[in-house]
Amino acid sequence: MAQTSIQKQEAKLKDLNQKIKDEKNKIEQRIGKQIISQANLDYANLSNDNIKSLSKKIAEFLKKNKAPKQL
Fold first, then answer.
1. Range of the domain at 49
2. What digits encode the pLDDT tens for the residues 1-52?
3. Which end of the chain is less packed: N or C, by CB atoms within 10 Å?
4. For residue 28, is it within any domain?
5. Is 70 domain-assigned?
6. pLDDT tens digit sequence for 47-68
7. In this structure, is residue 71 part of a structural domain?
8. Cα angle at 51 between 46 and 53, to 5 degrees?
9. Total tally of structural domains belonging to the chain
10. What is the C-alpha radius of gyration for the chain, rounded to an integer number of angstroms?
11. Is the distance from CB of 38 to CB of 31 less than 8 angstroms?
């Protein structure tokens, strides 16, 4: 009986971890879409190197300008 309870808790934990991962991915995608939209960038012209360079510049900017405090 204890084994079944533990297995149920493990399944719930696994499900919760997946939900957290999915939500993080949604947030990352929304941030990326907003940056692309606000900067009027063309998806067709964004290579992996362009994306890495842009990400690095944004990260450096946020670090220098103290990213907004999280709520």
1. 5-65
2. 578 999 999 999 999 999 999 999 999 999 999 999 999 999 888 899 999 9
3. C
4. yes
5. no
6. 999 999 999 999 999 888 875 6
7. no
8. 125
9. 1
10. 19
11. no
